[in-house]
Write a structure and sequence with these properties.
Oligomer: single chain
Largest sheet: 4 strands, parallel
Structural class: alpha/beta
Radius of gyration: 14 Å
Shape: globular
Amino acid sequence: MKKEAKLGPLITCIVPIYNGENWIRRCLDSLVYQSLENIEIIAVNNGSTDGTYEVLEQYHHAFPNKVFAGTIEHTNGPGGGRNYGLAHARAPYIIFADADDYFDTTAFEELYNKAVEGDYDMVYCA
């Protein structure tokens, strides 16, 4: 895995957020502290009118090589944010998360290992 790590992130997690200031920290905390460290998190502010973008900027400054904060004009639903993230993703595997989701600290490592061991294009979890 060390050889792969030099090539870029193994997983890109895309999180579209609209007015998620009150719960996005829980989500981002569960992402930045994953046991699989070679990941990138693209957090996309979907034209929020609350303090969402300021929270994203705080995480980008605290984790500059892991969290990338983008912003788009407001669109109904998460599709615009997901498309923005896909256009900027660098990893061979993509995880979509919502602003109110959170993950066990080993979730990405387990999903990645399962995908690689089985040579799967896609794996999923609840």
